[in-house]
Amino acid sequence: MEAMFKETACLSLGEIEAYHKGDLSGAQLRRVEHHLIDCALCDGALEGFNKRSDRVQDQIQLRKLNKAVRSSSRSRPFFFNKAVAAILILIVATSLLIYWQHNKGERLFAQLYETPVYEGSQQRGNSEGMRHNAIRQKAFVSFGQKDYAQAADLFETYLPEEANDFEAIFYAGIAQMEGRNLEKAIQYFQSTRLNDEEQYEGATWYLALAYVRQKEYEQAGLLAQEIEMTSHPIYRAKAVALLEKLGIKN
Prior knowledge:
The chain has 250 residues and is an all-alpha fold. The chain has helices at residues 13-21, 26-38, 40-51, 56-71, 77-102, 104-112, 133-144, 148-158, 166-178, 182-195, 200-213, 217-228, 233-246. Helix 7 (133-144) packs antiparallel against helix 8 (148-158) and helix 12 (217-228) runs antiparallel to helix 13 (233-246).
């Protein structure tokens, strides 16, 4: 902050844009980098400028700042630098707020998601009734080794011939979600929860998390409320936590 009230001018719009693009060199680059070291507000403004996907409002504010820099005089450094500080603080605060809101889904997902552990097949019947049992086994081995991409590919090969193996369908959904293929994961979780009573709560919970990751919070909240009405203690507790984080009260 101390540097803001020295006579060294803060960065202009052109300098920030050129530095952001990597267009500066030589003395210009050294001046900007030296100023960023001494001026926390300019450094923060640059960070916020870099993170925003829509920089129109930042550019408007920075043009105002640039105009103020050019029209300032040494006789009024204190008031000028107070204006500079106010503009930069506004830019940083706005940028951080947008960044925070944009990443809400990922933050909630990271806080609540745990990869389920596969503890062995619950599939009824013998291997002779499974046309692709070897592929199924390989898929679950890959899943246990956390090779979710390989597991997803193997499940995709296996499932078209075993459309009623909802245990495999559920874990295929997890493998797809680990690979951020949310549309496919949602499809698998929907199928499992509607067709397998034993896995209803788990499939519904992970379906809710898939919607959280997609930033579809209303749909995720409805599913959490649905789980809250069940008798499964673990998933009920998870659903309550999600509803609290979403600000949904019954």
